[in-house]
Amino acid sequence: MAEQRITITIDAEGKIQAETEGFKGDTCLKELEHLLADLVELEKITKRDEFYQQIETYNSQKIR
Fold it and tell me: Which strand (E) or helix (H) includes residue 30?
C-alpha cells in the first residue's frame, strides 16, 4: 500500500492549505474533513488525478 500523507500549510494571514498524497477516490476528502472538522470550513477543493482513481476492493464469499 502506498504511503498516505496530508501536508498542512498555514500562511502569515492564517490561511490554511492542505494537500494530500497517496489517497484514492474521496478518501482524501473524508480524511481532511475528519482532521479539520472543528478548525475550519473547506472552501476551495482542487481534485487531482488520484481523486478519480477507483479504490480496489475485494469480496470473498464462502460457498458451502
Answer: helix 27-36
Question: For residue 45, how far is the Cα from the chain centroid?
Answer: 11
Tell the residue number behind the cell numbers 502506498, with chain if given.
Answer: 2
CA distance 7 to 18: 6
Contacts of 26 (CB under 8 A, 6+ apart): 51
pTM above 0.70, yes or no: no
3-state helix, strand, coil in the chain (%, to 5): 20, 20, 60
- Whether the pLDDT of residue 1 is over 60: the answer is no
